[in-house]
Amino acid sequence: MSERVLICGAGVAGSIAAFYLGKADFQVTVVERSKAEQKAGQGIEIEEPALSVVKHMGILDTLKSIKTAEEGTDFVDQYSRSYGLYKTGGPSPTGELELMRGDLTEVLYKAADAHPNVTYLFETTVQSLKQTQDKVIVDLENRSTRTTKTEEFDLVVGADGVKSRTRQLAMGSPEELNCFKAVGAFVAYFSIPKQDQDWPYSRLCHFPGRKVLWMRPVSKASDVTSVYFIHVNKDVPALRRASAAGDRMKQKEAWAEVYSGLGWEVPRVIEQMMKAENFYSDELMQVKLKKWSQDRVVLVGDAAWAPTPFTGEGNQLAIIGAFVLAQQLSRNRTPAAFDVYEERLRSYVEDAQNIPLGGYAPYVLVPQTSWGVWLFRTLIYVGSWIVRFMAWTRTPDSSGGEHKEFDLQIEKVETKKAR
């Protein structure tokens, strides 16, 4: 009989792990607290070596067909005046393969769900988890019917994000593990109705007090625009209290207060934020654990090592980590694979968790004073002209940006159960 694996979380890491474990003839169940049709999340990019994983899955053409087609990033001031346009293909916040997270997870879900031995259970959460010597006993609750069933699995994979329920049940609370490392920033993202000026560039505006409003197009045909509030601040009591309580309306009210009185598109964004259904807000935390597994339970993605958006590596690590975990399990279908998975990835992940400029990048890139904002805008303006000059003088065979090197051993991935 094939080994049974429970994957908690149908995000990027969860569905990629499900895809490859399904190919390796595991019996896979994926549980996800959200509804199947619910889409949320920010814009994300896929670069090498993660790009090789989606190529190997055979979904790259599908992903290219749903990319946002955002043409670059325009840095603007509070009067909508551009002071630096960075187009796709150069040193721009906009990547070559820019996707909305919800669109990416839908493609990954469909690819994994195509395997007959992979089953998705939406609106389902893990209520309890008990490990024995040879199995994991799990109580699963359906959130819509409020019914609970008990099932047994050989292995459990926690791919359920920064506040992982799986991690807490198997290893202990964040306080016990001392695994949360605040980076001194709060973030909110949501969608608002699109207007003509929201296409084709993403637009980013800085305000004194370490505040940023970033507006990004979803697609030319879409009727919504993706919005990000970023506030670099170690302590915003109203936001912290609302986040701890999980009160979405109080979170919106706190953000409205923090950004009150600012110019540019802020009044429009605040008005529409109060109506947004896909609103998400939280304090940014890195997750740092001494070990990523406990007996028959293993963590992957943000549940194991959340790097925060300031590193730009969260999506990359989720894809690479899920692939490597499934690859090692296909080679050794026991918890022993978890140690090899961690041995291969640990140093790569820790390097990727490093926030640029010795951890001070958020403070440098999001200035506190009006003078600091002016200086930042001046540097962006000068940099945009340097980028244009480089584009004019670039030779046809010039290479693009550098990527962190990691040997995926992709040619060695197993897709069939060892007999």
TrEMBL record:
It comes from the Eukaryota. Residues 4-344 form the FAD-binding domain. Keywords: FAD, Flavoprotein, Oxidoreductase. This is FAD-binding domain-containing protein. It comes from Exophiala sideris. The lineage of its organism: Eukaryota, Fungi, Dikarya, Ascomycota, Pezizomycotina.
